[in-house]
Amino acid sequence: MTEAGNLTLMDKLRILSDAAKYDVACTSSGVDRRNAGRGLGNSIAAGICHSFSADGRCISLLKILFTNECVFDCRYCLNRSSNDVLRATFTPEEVCELTVGFYKRNFIEGLFLSSGIVRSPNYTMELLLRTVQLLRTKYQFFGYIHLKAIPGADERLIEQAGYYADRMSINLELPTAEGLKALAPHKSRNTILKPMRRIQLRAQENKNELALYRNAPKFVPAGQSTQMIIGATGESDYELVQVAQSLYKKFSLKRVFYSAFVNVNQDTSLPMPVQGPPLLREHRLYQADWLMRFYGFEADELLTREHPNFNTVFDPKCDWALRHLEQFPVEINRADYYTLLRVPGIGVQSARKIVGARRFGALNFEDLRKMRVVLKRALYFITCSGRMMYPVRMEEGYIARNLAGAGERLPDAVRNGGYRQLSFFDGAGGEVWQ
Predict the structure, then answer these.
(1) pLDDT value at position 428?
(2) For 20, 112, 360, 396, which has the most beta carbons within 10 A of its beta carbon?
(3) Helices H, strands E: what count in the chain?
(4) What residues does each domain of the chain span?
(5) Under a CB-based contact definition with an 8 Å cutoff, are residues 172 and 229 in contact?
(6) Which pTM does this prediction carry?
């Protein structure tokens, strides 16, 4: 095994950017952090440019681990202590130099920094805190920073780091306490949820401070997120969306990310999916998550104990609509905004356009087409001035057959079964740092 002292900065970057690829919780949300001409970069709500791979993973941030050393032995993790892998650790200065260097070359808009646990949670959190402090103060970097908090670290360290990061996250890892105990015995639900609660409370306090004092320092202005690994344990989709809904309501999370399980250790005690990770399941969970956050759906509406898993043919909203045909058809010219959102083929923007436009007159199907309503799906569930677009039998089997024929647009990674995170070295033809 190569010693860390023999590794160049580029060696470390290759090892630690690759080691970070299984952490998917790296997108940002709108946050304003301006440098007022004093430093480098901006983090502005409408100004952060992101690229996403087909399976939803963010690739526009410098996404690295501070270290892949780890004292924990989680069975699903490539960097577990029992694995014989090449180990590397950055210094705080090295992370700062890489971030600023890539930013100046317009490769990135910010930093996503996570870490294994070296020595202890407190020691690791101190290193991460020192890194973001240097970026903001010494290097005057005002770009976006997403920082992973270390479970088990002193809450005071986590709180201090929150004043330098735009977003923080603590991975739930596995959906249930039983799954965590079985596959990650060094972690506990308490060490994960306790700092998550502290971040939530401190963020609420900070909003009150900012209301009173405009120049008060901001604490995690883009909120916090978490990640769940799906497919490593036996939970149903119903249990997963229940956990996600609980996290949103109890901890005010901005995002719950879902990571399809990959058996990177070839551990025979873990699932060995023949066709790779369950990306379609991951895709359905993200669709359901969107419905809960923006469309007013509750977890119990999407799935039940009797109907515990998502349909592989239809997206969650179509599946719900087919099971609740008694609520259709919906009259476009009278239905309220939230009723429109429940119609397959009508999204947030088109629902807003419909509500706004019908104040000036009755809408017809051609008007809906211009508003980007997906009529090949919506036509079975709506009327315009009391008329349907075509004669339709309100029967589940009939509508299901027609919707299946219309097809659903799936991400390339789901259709083709491919999954990988883009690298800074893809297509570079050599050292990108030089």
Answers:
(1) 40
(2) 112
(3) 16, 8
(4) 4-217, 316-406
(5) no
(6) 0.85
The arithmetic mean of pLDDT across residues 42-53, rounded, is 43
Q: What amino acid is encoded at 195 in this protein?
A: P
Asked if 162 and 199 touch (Cβ cutoff 8 Å), the reply is yes
Cα 236 to Cα 69, 239, 241, 331, distances in angstroms = 33, 5, 9, 35
Helices 316-323 and 279-294 cross at an angle (nearest 10°) of 70
Mean pLDDT of 188-207: 94
User: 430: which strand partners?
Assistant: none
Q: In this structure, which long-range contacts are made by residues 215-219, counting pairs with CB atoms below 8 Å and at least 24 apart in sequence?
A: 217/163, 218/33, 218/163, 219/159, 219/162, 219/163
Q: Which of 285, 313, 311, 312 is nearest to 299 (CA)?
A: 285
Contact 98, 134 (CB under 8 A): no
Nearest residue to 174 (alpha-carbon basis) of 232, 223, 116, 222: 232
What pLDDT is attached to residue 20?
A: 80
Looking at residue 357, the DSSP 8-state letter turns out to be: H
The answer to whether residue 399 scores a pLDDT higher than 90 is yes
Q: What pLDDT does residue 43 have?
A: 54
Supply 427's token pair: 């297509």
User: Which residue carries 């202590």 as its tokens?
Assistant: 81
Q: What per-residue confidence (pLDDT) applies to 19? A: 80
Nearest by Cα to 231 from 191, 264, 194, 254: 264
Q: Are 300 and 58 in contact (CB under 8 A)?
A: no
For residues 246 and 226, the answer to whether their CB atoms sit within 8 Å is no
Contact status, residue 141 vs residue 39, Cβ threshold 8 Å:
yes
Return the beta strands (E) in 261-367 as ranges. 330-331
Handedness of CA 24, 218, 66, 129 (dihedral sign): negative
The SS3 call for residue 62 is strand
Residue position matching structure tokens 């491919």: 418
- Angle at CA of residue 236, ends 235 and 240, nearest 5°: 80
Beta bridge pairs of residue 145: 111
Ranges assigned E (strand) in 172-292? 224-230, 255-260
